[in-house]
Amino acid sequence: AVSVALFTSDLRVHDNPVLRAAVRDADAVIPLFVRDRGIRRTGFDAPNRRAFLADCLADLDAGLRRRGGRLVVREGDVVAVARAVAVATGARSLHIGSGVSGYATHRENGLRTALAAAGCTLHVHDAVVTAVAPGRITPAGRDHYAVFTPYLRRWEEVGVRGTLAAPRAVRLPDGVESEPLPKRAEVAGVSPGLADGGESAGRGLLSSWLRGPLADYGDGHDDLAGDATSRLSPHLHFGCLSAAEVINRARQRGGPGADAFVRQLAWRDFHHQVLAARPDAAREDYRTRHDRWRSDEDEIAAWRAGRTGFPLVDAAMRQLAYEGWMPNRGRMLVACFLTKTLYTDWRVGARHFLDLLVDGDLANNQLNWQWMAGTGTDTRPNRLLNPVVQGKRFDPHGTYVRRWVPELAELADGEIHEPWKLTGPRRAAIDYPDPLVGLAEARARFERARGLD
Ligand code: FAD
What we know:
- Keywords: Chromophore, FAD, Flavoprotein.
- Belongs to the DNA photolyase family.
- Helix 13 crosses helix 14 (about 330-340).
- Helix 5 links the parallel strand 4 (about 95) and strand 5.
- This protein has a five-stranded parallel beta sheet with strand order 3-2-1-4-5, with helices on both faces.
- Helix content is about 50%, strand content about 5%.
- With about 450 residues, the protein is α/β, with parallel strands linked by helices.
- It has three domains: about 1-130, HUPs (Rossmann fold, 3-Layer(aba) Sandwich); about 130-160 and about 200-275, Alpha Horseshoe (Serine Threonine Protein Phosphatase 5, Tetratricopeptide repeat), CATH 1.25.40.80; about 295-450, DNA Cyclobutane Dipyrimidine Photolyase, subunit A, domain 3 (Orthogonal Bundle), CATH 1.10.579.
- Flavin-adenine dinucleotide binds near residues 271, 335, 357 and 369.
């Protein structure tokens, strides 16, 4: 018998319930990845993620070849391609990981119908993308948790499944051809500092993270100069690493750093279960509706370009452009700045992030944006982060700002977060914009808009 393992956000051989079930189910397996035209049409296929994906596919192919198989890549509509492969090979089963977006549900429904007509059964596996499946834990009378703390409590109680070994052998049926694998070098418009993708790179990064920096994560994770987070997010987004394995291995190390790190992975599951229950939250305000947003094109352009005149905001936005990645503290600050200080619709910021972020993820991106904008699950939706206070706290020596905003490199630690206070020739000597807005007026405008004054 033949089965198909349809890879989506699980581009790995280790701890992959989809691949494992497909191998157990049949004598021969087709490890299939479809370059889905449906996803391309959504604009989700931005250059940084397309480049990282090319690395992931090359490495997945290598991992399968080490086990006697190889990756079969096809381009087209995912449902049509899967059906054609099933018909051509007589596959009796197709395995896929369950997704959380509206698109993933649509894909599952389409596959179920099309495959049934071809005599092939669809098997949808949970806890492939997330550690705990959405819907697995729910509060009384509701289909998902809207508040993180009670979610976390239950999430810790139910625990994460054990890590699955990679299959020893993957045998392909004869005569199945692959289209050429996409190459990273062929993708235009990629951020110059983009990280390398793929399961091998991800596993290497995870091992060194667990051996060293994890121990200091509890106190250190917001230290912008120290670059003190794992940078595992793109590997988790593409599934080069499974969230369950990352959690199990972090727990084995133990300690306060590991506890804090695992809690962040619970946030990932939390946002996924919100989106699974409320797919419209990718577009619509989740809880509190705000529709009186301002829209000033010059301000938005300055924010995108990292030229707002607020050094920490600009540093983070320039890092995003250069690396396709930004630490969480930076994301929170720039999102708060756009949505609360400039009072701009969170969708404008979420779109820009999705254009650039290598880990750009519908659940994590849209719901974190909504959290920051105060339309989502934040229980204190009207708190406002001050970029100067944040700078003094999380980049006290201005190291992070100097790295990304070289115009300010010569300023003293005590000056660097408030360059507008410089006067005379010292101000004239730096080519750096004046602040887009006064923080006090912006706060007053925000409070008026929210009816807090
Ligand atoms: P670490 O601090 O090492 O954390 C480990 C892992 O925990 C991360 O890789 C991630 O999978 C998860 N995690 C950490 N923080 C969060 C969080 N707040 N929400 C959900 N999961 C979290 N994360 C994405 O993966 N994709 C996105 O598109 C995305 N967009 C964001 C947009 C905004 C406005 C904000 C405020 C946050 C966003 N995040 C997003 C969450 C978070 O910023 C990143 O996951 C994190 O910065 C990735 O860096 P890291 O891997 O070094 O994280």
